[in-house]
Backbone:
């Protein structure tokens, strides 16, 4: 049945009688004055201790009980990542409820589906605009209370609860079992309506503790801290929130993506969770600033990073010359990169999409190890992860302790362990398609296992079959084309066509910098996109991608789309995955032109 399989080591224990909120009450009693959270208030960072966190969670939970939230009731939470998100998430659980996160970018229609399907009995929003969307999205005839964070909603909610409700919080928080639902997370849905993935307290605690176990040396470093900025509505950021609580790691909350650069410099985290898109932007930004003579120095550092890191990652001695070059690059380039990230950063955790190996090598050479992992909403985020003890760049690591990963005969990645979800909410049939016999979960992804390390090669449903019958995995080509600084998004096409093509969108900042470097004058973005110089650079990116595949799988033609793909237009999910069918619906003429030109 399996082509290959791998199994993690013995897992960290999760005991009956525990649940997700247990750590709050235990830490508040044992180390009440120890800091666990920091958030930006103007120019200063405010500290929150364990005792303060526990007190705020208890008061908010009492307010939820007073508003009628019962055990097992669903509460919808729509907000960007901020300290109040964590307060409310924990309060919902302490009240015996189930958190239903909603991305802040979700449309009214998307909100309407989630509210109707989940049956949320109370709504929480960050802003007046979000509150308006939730209000318009309420199922007809329902009157769920709605509280708005920025309109004093948390204070109002906390004031609802009295002594009786606060006493109930202790009982409900203690009564929640490991097999009770802790959250219903609606998958971002690259196809069809989002499905409500039911995750239990066991799923979350198990995954958080195994993640903590494999990253133990890093998380337990002196004064370990991280800066949260990815959406907490996403399962990976949410899991990391609980890894921090379990490991007693200080969490700082960035003001916004716009203030992230300043927040990194002032908070100075030891590590961060991010997605490949952020690493791409950091790399491209550093490259863009290296104009004139500095560009040669930057290119030198990039070349050395690949050479030095590849040797170290493989356990080889890089050699005297490479090590000497590395010291020069460290002083001239890598040190500035580290300073831009706060100066104390030692490692990053990456997930959500494949990380290009050149980025991993570059950051590794700069002294910032990126530990890439792999998982699904249905596996409570990571099922595998690279770690200090077992890392191989270009893979997504080995199974977490207590987890098993196997490759089915058709190449699909199969996952088994206590992180695997229990069911889809109100959708038993969909659950049967992914939850197989003997506890295995069918991921929908394709992969390979070598020496215990998993490598993801594509999506099963995204395989393209050309008119000539050739099976093509788009992910390999898309990842390599996206490595070019000018490229924002790529969609490989060719289903039923005579050859493979690609639709490409551009990064405006990078194109403008490229135009300055090549003296292309004052041209519009549309003119630059069609210029010989930009086309030649894109052609180079395509040819480099083609080097990784056979001739029959290679991209023969590409087209530059008139704009980037967006979440608002439905072309990207909130977690920035491309919705292939929507893009093809929006740009049919560009696809046809690829084949007309041939």
Residues:
């Amino acid at each position: 049945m399996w082509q290959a399989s791998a199994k993690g080591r013995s897992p960290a224990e999760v005991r009956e009688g525990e649940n997700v909120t247990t750590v709050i009450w235990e830490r508040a009693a044992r180390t009440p004055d120890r800091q666990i959270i920091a958030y930006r208030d103007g120019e200063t960072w405010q500290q929150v201790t364990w005792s303060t966190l526990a007190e705020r969670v208890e008061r908010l939970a009492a307010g939820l009980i007073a508003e009628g939230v019962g055990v097992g009731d669903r509460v919808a939470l729509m907000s960007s990542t901020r300290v109040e998100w964590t307060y409310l998430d924990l309060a919902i659980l302490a009240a015996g409820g189930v958190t239903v996160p909603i991305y802040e970018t979700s449309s009214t229609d998307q909100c309407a589906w989630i509210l109707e399907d989940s049956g949320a009995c109370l709504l929480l929003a960050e802003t007046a605009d979000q509150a308006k969307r939730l209000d318009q999205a309420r199922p007809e005839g329902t009157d769920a209370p709605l509280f708005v964070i920025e309109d004093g909603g948390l204070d109002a909610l906390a004031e609802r609860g009295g002594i009786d409700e606060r006493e109930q919080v202790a009982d409900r928080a203690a009564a929640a079992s490991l097999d009770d639902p802790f959250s219903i997370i609606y998958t971002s849905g690259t196809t069809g309506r989002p499905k409500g993935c039911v995750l239990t307290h066991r799923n979350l605690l198990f995954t958080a503790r195994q993640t903590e176990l494999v990253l133990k040396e890093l998380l337990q470093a002196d004064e370990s801290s991280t800066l949260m900025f990815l959406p907490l509505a996403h399962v990976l950021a949410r899991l990391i929130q609980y890894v921090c609580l379990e490991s007693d790691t200080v969490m700082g909350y960035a003001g916004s993506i716009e203030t992230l650069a300043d927040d990194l410099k002032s908070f100075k985290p030891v590590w961060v969770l991010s997605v490949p898109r952020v690493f791409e932007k950091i790399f491209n930004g550093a490259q863009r600033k290296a104009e004139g003579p500095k560009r040669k120095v930057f290119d030198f550092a990039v070349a050395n990073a690949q050479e030095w890191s590849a040797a170290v990652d493989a356990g080889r001695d890089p050699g005297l010359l490479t090590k000497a070059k590395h010291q020069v690059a460290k002083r001239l380039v890598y040190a500035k990169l580290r300073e831009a990230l706060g100066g104390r950063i030692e490692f990053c955790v990456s997930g959500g999409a494949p990380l290009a190996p050149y980025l991993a090598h570059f950051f590794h050479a700069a002294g910032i190890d990126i530990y890439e992992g792999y998982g699904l909403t249905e596996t409570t985020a990571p099922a595998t992860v690279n770690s200090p003890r077992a890392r191989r760049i270009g893979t997504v690591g080995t199974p977490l302790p207590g987890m098993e990963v196997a490759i089915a005969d058709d190449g699909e990645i199969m996952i088994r362990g206590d992180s695997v979800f229990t069911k889809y909410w109100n959708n038993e049939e969909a659950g049967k398609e992914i939850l197989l016999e003997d506890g295995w979960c069918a991921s929908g992804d394709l992969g390979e296992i070598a020496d215990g390390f998993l490598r993801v090669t594509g999506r099963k449903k995204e395989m393209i079959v050309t008119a000539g019958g050739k099976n093509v995995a788009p992910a390999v080509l898309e990842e390599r084309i996206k490595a070019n600084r000018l490229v924002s998004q790529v969609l490989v096409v060719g289903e039923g066509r005579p050859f493979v093509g690609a639709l490409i969108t551009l990064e405006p900042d990078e194109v403008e910098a490229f135009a300055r470097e090549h003296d292309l004058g004052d041209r519009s973005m549309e003119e630059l996109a069609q210029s010989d110089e930009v086309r030649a650079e894109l052609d180079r990116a395509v040819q480099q991608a083609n080097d990784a595949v056979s001739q029959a799988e290679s991209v023969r033609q590409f087209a530059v789309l008139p704009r980037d793909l967006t979440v608002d237009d439905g072309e990207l999910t909130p977690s920035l995955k491309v919705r292939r069918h929507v893009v093809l619906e929006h740009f049919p003429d560009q696809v046809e032109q690829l084949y007309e030109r041939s």
